[in-house]
Amino acid sequence: DAKTTQPNSMESNEEEPVHLPCNHSTISGTDYIHWYRQLPSQGPEYVIHGLTSNVNNRMASLAIAEDRKSSTLILHRATLRDAAVYYCILRDEMNYGGATNKLIFGTGTLLAVQP
Amino acid sequence: NAGVTQTPKFQVLKTGQSMTLQCAQDMNHEYMSWYRQDPGMGLRLIHYSVGAGITDQGEVPNGYNVSRSTTEDFPLRLLSAAPSQTSVYFCASSYSIRDYGYTFGSGTRLTVV
Question: Does A111 score more than 50 pLDDT?
Answer without folding.
Answer: yes
